[in-house]
Amino acid sequence: MSWAFLRDLLSGVNKxxxxxxxxxxxxxxxxxxxxxVAAAENIWKHEHDEFECNIKQPGCENVCxxxxxxxxxxxxxxxxLIMVSTPSLLVVFHVAYRENREKHHxxxxxxxxxxxxxxxxxxxxxxxxxxxxxxIVFLVLFYKLYNGFKIPxxxxxxxxxxxxxVDCYISKPTEKMIFLYFLVATSCLCIILNxxxxxxxxxxxxxxxxxxxxxxxxx
Length: 219
Prior knowledge:
- One of its GO terms (cellular component) is connexin complex.
- Residues 42-75 form the Connexin N-terminal domain.
- By secondary structure, the chain is mostly helical.
- The protein is 69% helix and 5% strand.
- The protein is built from seven helices and three strands; from the N terminus they run H-H-E-H-H-H-H-E-E-H.
- Strands 1-3-2 form a three-stranded antiparallel sheet, covered by helices on one side.
- Helix 4 (73-85) packs antiparallel against helix 6 (118-145) and helix 5 (88-105) packs antiparallel against helix 6 (118-145).
- The longest helix is centred in the C-terminal third of the chain and has 46 residues, at 173-218.
- It is elongated, with a radius of gyration of 23 Å.
């Protein structure tokens, strides 16, 4: 999979982010995307081929693997990376709309098209809410699909066409567990950063609006 588009998207978002937002971009790019591409993808690369059961009944390994891993961890992680980064496109599109509007009217309509204020502030807040919501949804999805954040080395399967309860072994469970914990930790950290940025922006512009009203009343 080519991640050039996601990399360019994160680079573009970085220009219009607050300080907390830039930390979020750094974590997504360095601690999630690069780890995924450099290491995690290879660990899960042959997960189906390396899943073995102690019986060679045709179809038994396939149905057991599908039961315990309805969706591959690594594919779900890739989908999560894409989905939580996509709301940032709203900010990029809004800035592009401002720039095109200035070109169309051939005059300066904004002090800085990339400054977070007015309509762009609402767009930015919506993108933060969406990113936070998607992070939580994927964490819940991981937990529900795999019965918790754990990868056992041995699972017992009694699904047909397996003739009896059979033992199935998962390859490299310790390595996979480490990366799964890393995934959960970085997701939680991103949620905290998003909520912190959301609170910061709401507080900042609430104070700004209050001061404007206070000045108007004094005048």
